Every structure is written in structure tokens, then in C-alpha cells.
Amino acid sequence: MSELAIVKTVFLSAPPDHVWKFLTEKERLATWFYEAGADITGPGDFHLVRNSLGREGEKQIWGEVLEYDPPRKLVHTFTHGGLSNVVTTCTWTLTGMEGGTILRLEHTGFENLDSGGFDMAGNHDKGWDEFFVRLRHVTR
After folding, report:
1. In the prediction, which pLDDT does 59 show?
2. Does the pLDDT value for residue 2 go beyond 90?
3. Count of structural domains, the chain
4. Has residue 133 been placed in a domain?
5. What's the mean pLDDT in 14-20?
6. Which residue from 15, 42, 50, 66 has the fewest beta carbons nearer than 10 Å?
7. List of residues 6+ apart from 26 with CB closer than 8 A
8. Is residue 97 within 8 Å of 89, Cβ to Cβ?
């Protein structure tokens, strides 16, 4: 089976060290994605919690940070109940340019689902688009 990879590139008008904070700091993650249980400060386990009314604090996403190279690269596993606990991988690469940061996300591993991998990759592709609209707004 072919690899089902989501690849996104986002141009942000902020320097990499500023964008990095929105990938790793608990409160800043909450402004565009989900709140982390704690700041992500290096390799090890992490989890993100819901921050919507009525479901605050509920574990939503969890994984393990595999590579932590501020403010250039963050690699972590990524799973949740909807993925039937199948582990996917997110690789975030930040490249500083005059005027801001090119943020690249590669989210892989959907082909490891027993069924529905294509649909699940499509759902996550759409979700990342929606979250990146928020990220562009909050990193200004």
C-alpha cells in the first residue's frame, strides 16, 4: 500500500522562534489547536486536551516527542481515539526567511489503519487546513 502523507506548507509573518512557541507552549497551542497538558520541552510523552465548552481537560491527542530541535524541527507521534490508537507521525519544519517563517507539516502513517485510511487522511487534511487558518491569525 502507498504511504498516505499529508503535506502542508504555511507562510507565517513571524520569526521561527515566535512560531515555535505556538507548537510547544501549552497556552499558545490552545489559541489555535488544543491545549497541551504541559509545555513540550523535549523528547518524551505529551498529550493535548480539549478546550471546548463542556469537555475541557478531556484528553484528545497523545504521543511521544521523538525529535526536538528549537526552533527548527519538531517530530512527534500523534494518535487519538478516532485513529483507533494507530500511531501516526507529525514532522514540523520551520525555515526562517526574510519576512517570516515557512512552516512545513508532514503527517504520515494513515495507511497503517486497518480500514478507512484514505478517508481518515482526508479528514485530517481538512482539519489541518482549518487549524492553520487560526495559526496564521494568532502568530501575527
Report:
1. 85
2. no
3. 1
4. yes
5. 98
6. 42
7. 35, 36, 37, 38, 39
8. no
Average pLDDT, the chain: 93
Sheet containing 59-69: give its strands across: 6-12, 100-108, 88-97, 73-78, 59-69, 44-49, 35-36
Q: What is the distance between the alpha carbons of residues 83 and 87, in angstroms, rounded to a whole number?
A: 8
More confident residue, 101 or 53: 101
In a domain, 28, yes or no: yes
Distance between CA atoms of residues 114 and 86, nearest Å:
9
User: Is the pLDDT reported for residue 67 higher than 80?
Assistant: yes
Q: Which residues contact 84 (CB under 8 A, 6 or more apart)?
A: 113, 114
Structural domain span for residue 30: 6-138
Calpha distance 73→104 (Å, rounded): 10
Stated as kind and residue range, the H or E segment containing 16 is: helix 16-24
